[in-house]
Fold this sequence. Notes:
About 90% of the residues lie in helices and about 0% in strands. The protein is an all-alpha fold.
Amino acid sequence: MSSRIGGFIGPLVFAVVTQLTGTxxxxxxxxxxxxxxxxxxxxxxxxKEGIRVAKEEDAATAIT
Length: 64
């Protein structure tokens, strides 16, 4: 689902910024901003906690 949204929003932002600024340089910077924000969000993910929660969910569904 998120790849479909990204496949829509990325080109849309690129096109809008190009139309507003008249150059694709700022469009590339705006897309680069998505990567930076995504990297910052991913750096906040606690993998060990996610694994623990996933195991708990698996155990809960195995019981029922």
